[in-house]
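Narrative progress, year one. The postdoctoral researcher (J.K.) led the effort to move from monomer predictions toward full complexes, under supervision of the PI. The following entry was the first complex the group processed end to end, covering 588 residues in total.
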Amino acid sequence: MSAATAVGAGPLAIIAGAGRLPAEIAAEVAERQEDVAILPIKGVANADFSAFRQRPVGMLDPNGVLAALADLDARAVIMAGTVHRPGIGLVMAGYEAVRNREEIRKVVQGGDDNLLRGIIAFLEDNGFPVLGVRDVAPRLMAQEGLLGRHAPTEADTQDIASGRRALAAMGLSDIGQGLIVAQHRILAVEAAEGTDNMIRRVTGLRRKGLIGRLLRHGRPAIAEQTGGVLVKAAKPGQDFRVDLPAIGPRTVRLAREAGLGGIAIEAGSVLVVEREMTIRAADAAGLYIIGVAP
Amino acid sequence: MSAATAVGAGPLAIIAGAGRLPAEIAAEVAERQEDVAILPIKGVANADFSAFRQRPVGMLDPNGVLAALADLDARAVIMAGTVHRPGIGLVMAGYEAVRNREEIRKVVQGGDDNLLRGIIAFLEDNGFPVLGVRDVAPRLMAQEGLLGRHAPTEADTQDIASGRRALAAMGLSDIGQGLIVAQHRILAVEAAEGTDNMIRRVTGLRRKGLIGRLLRHGRPAIAEQTGGVLVKAAKPGQDFRVDLPAIGPRTVRLAREAGLGGIAIEAGSVLVVEREMTIRAADAAGLYIIGVAP
C-alpha cells in the first residue's frame, strides 16, 4: 500500500526499452492531454521521443531510475519495449546494489517473470505505482472484430474455437499464451521458446513433412496440411505489467512463412504493435487477423 | 462387430516396421506359449525374426497383407515398429486400390492418427481384430517405481507433479503427451513436433540463454536453470493401437544433452523400448527414470 500513499502529482513515466512501443504508449497518453515523460534506457531505447520530456537512465542503475522518478514527481510508471543483452546477469548486479542477496536469490531462482515482479515491487516500495500497457494505452490492445480486409473461413472459425479451449485449459497450468491449430489439430504449443519460435517450428514441420514413425505414431498428415491459425490469449489472472501478449509485423511474416491462414487474438488482452504496418502486412499476405471476445 | 465374429484360430500376427519393438513383442508373446507370426514390411523391417514364422508383405499392398493374414488364419493383428518414407502418399495410393476415394479423403483430411484408424478399420472390417502393444506385451510398458539406480529429488518430485497436472489439463484438448518442467516452470510442451524435437528445443533454449525481450516478457531465468524432468503420459481415452507413448535410449541421450535430471513416465501407458539399454544409458548419465501411477 506504500505505493497508494505516495502517488506523485507529475507525469506518467515510461521506462523505455527498444522498439516503437514506448513512443506509441506516450502518444496515446498525450492524446488524452495527460502528462507523460520518457525514461529512455541508455543504449537500448531507439524510438523517436523528441515530442516528450526525457530523462535517460542506465539499465543497471536502479537508484538513477528512482532519482529521475522522484525528480519528475511521477504519478505512476510503466515499463515498455524490449531489452536484449547484457541482460539478466548485469541487471541483477545493478539490482543487487539496492536489494539484499536473499531477495535476489528468490527473484533469480523463481525464474520466468519473477525478475520483473521484483523490479515492480522495488519501484512500488519506493512509492511509484507500476501500470501496464492495457491500463495506460488501451487502444493499443486488440479490439473485437477483423483488423484487416481478410476474414476467417468457417473451418478457420472452428480451429480458433478449439485453440481457445485448449489455451483456457493450459492457462490453469500457467503454460504459454499461444498455439497453432490446423484442421482441428494442435500443431504447436508455446512455452518458454516464445511465439516467434513456435511459429518457425510449424514452418519447419511442414517443410520436412514429418512422415516418420508412421506406424508407431501415425502423424502423416502434417505435410499435406495447409492453413491453420495462430491463437493468442492471456492466461487467467495474468499480470499484464509482467507479461504482455503481443503481435506485430514480424508475427504476420512468420505466420505467412508457416502457411497459416490467419491470427486470432483475445480482444483487450493482446497488444498489436505497429498496428498500421501489421494490418498492411496481413492484407498483403492474404492473412486474416481477428480479435475475439474473451 | 464383424471383427468379433470372424476371429481366426491361428497366431497373433505382427505387422513389423523398423526397429526392435516387433521382435520384443513377439518374444513376450512366445514366452506365454502363444502362437505368433511376423509380417515384416519388405524393405522396412530390420530386426532378427528368425525365431518366428514370417510372411513378408509390401507396405503398399493391403491385399497382400489380407491374404497373408487369411492364410495364417490370424486371430488378431498388431502393428509395431516405425515406417519412414515413401510415407503417406504411397501408402494412400495402395490403400486407395481397396477403399473408395471418399473414405480416403476423410482419412487424409482428418490428419494425425486418422490414417492408422483407417488401416485399423480396414483390417477389422476384413475380420482381423487389431490389438495394441499394451494388450499383447504388457511387460514392455513402464511399471511403477524406479527403472534405474538414480531417484528424483524432492524438487524433481514437485516438478513431476506439476507436469502431470498440466498434461491432464491438456489431454482434454488432445494435445501431445509430453512436456518438460524445470523449477516449477513448463519449458516446453509437445505437440506435432514429437518428444525428441521438444527435448532438443530445451537444449537449444539453454544454449542460447533466451535473455531477449526481458522487459516485455521477463523470461531471464532459463539460462540459469538446470535440471528439470521430461514427463510423458497417455491422453485420456487414448487408443494405444494408434498412438503409443514411448521412451528409449535416444530419449535418455537427448534428455542428458538438455541437462534434464530425469524422466517420469505414466506406468502402464508408456512403452520402454530396448529397456536394458535404456536403463543402462540412464544410470550412466546420472538420470532417473520413474514410472508413476496413472
